[in-house]
Amino acid sequence: MTQRIAFQGEPGAYSHQACREARPDMQALPCKTFEDAIEAVRKGDADLAMLPVENSTYGRVADIHHLLPDSGLHIIDEAFVRVHINLLAVPGTRLEQVRTATSHTVLLGQCRAFLRENGIEGRTGADTAGSARMIAALGEPENAALASELAGEIYGLDVVARHIEDHDRNTTRFLVMAREPDLKRRGSAGMMTSFVFRVRNIPAALYKAMGGFATNGVNMTKLESYMINGHFTATQFYAEIEGHPDDRNVQLALEELDYFTSHVGLLGVYPADPRRR
């Protein structure tokens, strides 16, 4: 039986591209929301979920860090996906025929120079793949979409202009989630550990909690805070470090962290994507 990997969005979305690149042997399952993708794995309708967490140009993806701790799932892998933006139109369309380009507002913002140089008006659509589907249904050469080549393939559109993004390193990082953790050492680029914690209500608690990572030579690659349940006084931190919980220096750092925190929750142990370097 073919395994399935859930993602948020329509077929042809960049999350769909991430599924195809990272798990080409699995069947991609489109879901309406991030919560739906998580629930599909929890219920057994899918084996994995592919969730975007941050973009190199636009920062972290809203809501994801709130969903991860309570999802009941575990991070087992990460995937870095290069976001190439393409101008898609009905077959046979020439660039000079295009007058409008529809897409998610984020993609429109990443192609300002190209659109301006070619006199194309940007129009906001619900999302990238949905915009491509709409343009295919319209069937008008003057109206195009900004989306992935995969979206063009799915909806029968031609690539009128390829890789038109303003920034040539635009990359989205995804986390692969599963029902069960995988603590094995694997991959060729080292291991990563993700966790959440809440500091105790004592002076300089965060500073003291972080001290153990510095003194034990553990590199912390991410530390972000966010409110819990809308309360300004209830703050949870999301952290990522290089290393495995079985590494002695990581063990010592986590022991010191535990002393200054009221809660620590392990979210996942997974191999670093080689493109992280």
UniProtKB/TrEMBL annotation:
SUPFAM superfamilies: ACT-like, Periplasmic binding protein-like II. Keywords: Amino-acid biosynthesis, Aromatic amino acid biosynthesis, Lyase, Phenylalanine biosynthesis. Pathway: Amino-acid biosynthesis; L-phenylalanine biosynthesis; phenylpyruvate from prephenate: step 1/1. This is prephenate dehydratase. It catalyses: prephenate + H(+) = 3-phenylpyruvate + CO2 + H2O. It comes from the Bacteria. GO terms for biological process: L-phenylalanine biosynthetic process. GO terms for cellular component: cytoplasm. NCBIfam families: PRK11899.1. Pfam families: PDT (PF00800). Its EC number is 4.2.1.51. GO terms for molecular function: prephenate dehydratase activity. Residues 4-179 form the Prephenate dehydratase domain. Residues 194-271 form the ACT domain. Gene3D superfamilies: 3.30.70.260, Periplasmic binding protein-like II. PROSITE patterns: ACT (PS51671), PREPHENATE_DEHYDR_1 (PS00857), PREPHENATE_DEHYDR_3 (PS51171).
